[in-house]
Amino acid sequence: MDVLKGAGRLLGQALKATLTAVFGKYLLIAAVIGGIIALVAMALVVPSISADQKRIQAGGEVCVPTGNTGIPPAAPGAFLQQQIANAKTIDGEAARLGLSGKASRVAIITAYGESTLINIDHGDLAGPDSRGLFQQRPSQGWGTNEQVMDPAYAATSFLIGPKHDRSGGLVSIAGWESMEPTLAINKVQRNANPNHYSAFYAAADDIIKRAGIDVGRAGSTEAAEGPGSTDDAPSGSSCGGQPGKIGEPSDDYPFKSITPGPGIYVADPMGYFYGECTSFVAWRINRDAGSNGAPFKFSSAAGNFSNGNASDWKTAWESRGWKVSNVPVPGAVAWWGSFGGTGIGSAGHVAYVSEVTAEGKVIIEEYNNTHYAPPGHKYAKRPQPEDPANVGAFLYPPGK
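^ CHAP domain-containing protein, sequence as received from the core. Prediction below:
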């Protein structure tokens, strides 16, 4: 048996040596062929990479889209020129509408955040039919596919609303000029993250600088000839107001002795709450109309003054056909929407215009604005005349 085992081992070793000798040369040949193929592939790829690097060096840094949608690769120089041209188009539309350079900047930031200022013809998963610089959706009433792909048309829609009737868009956001741009943009675009656009300030400002756009250009906070507004500012006023006054500013609110402290709400006879800004302004409107006690001429009980929170007053005014304007007059209501100015929260704010100065600025009296008065249902007269541009709108009482 030992002899047989030894013979078997010798036979196996001989067979292994034979197979190695036979197949080894084929393995060697295969390795050589593989190496040649690899060298050929490298020769083809490396020049292509080198050429791309040279193009990048010649054109500057490649812009990488970081908005809601991707951008097809483009030569850096051509990409930049498209951005500049589109920024100029947006600025041109803002200027044509009589809006300030600040409106141009907000719109350009928006377009950069949505499409990197490139007029793209596709959307994303959240908005598959979104198109154009502002990624506006035809299915949401922003216009036809052709319209949202037209940079000028799309810019106008963003600025004054999709119907181009000045009832929407940026100009409809009360106090947008004093707001953080990303927050104002969010109210128009209505995306999930209100801080989304802050990441694009620097990039948009760079394009603005390259395009030579004057963001300090003067203009109105609202588009000219908006609904309920006067056509032109009266003569004799640089800021649009008609000089005049109604009495001397004073706390003549008749309910202050029974007005509760902070956080306590008791209904007043006009349908509001004692000490709130709405109650004080409702009183002033009744006083000016000669109604100094219950039953008041203007009240919820009378069925003609159920305005809701201060933020809702402008809409209520317009629904009755009462005049809304960006031009102040004595006796008008100064109105701000939600978070529309300093000291103003989600419920908005209303105040009383007791005087318009010779320079067209407004003397404002108010209740319950803790930025100007002690906390909790207190009266204040603003220490300095207010620029009408800092007021969301002026609501004219009936007869004004």
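The chain has nine helices and seven strands.
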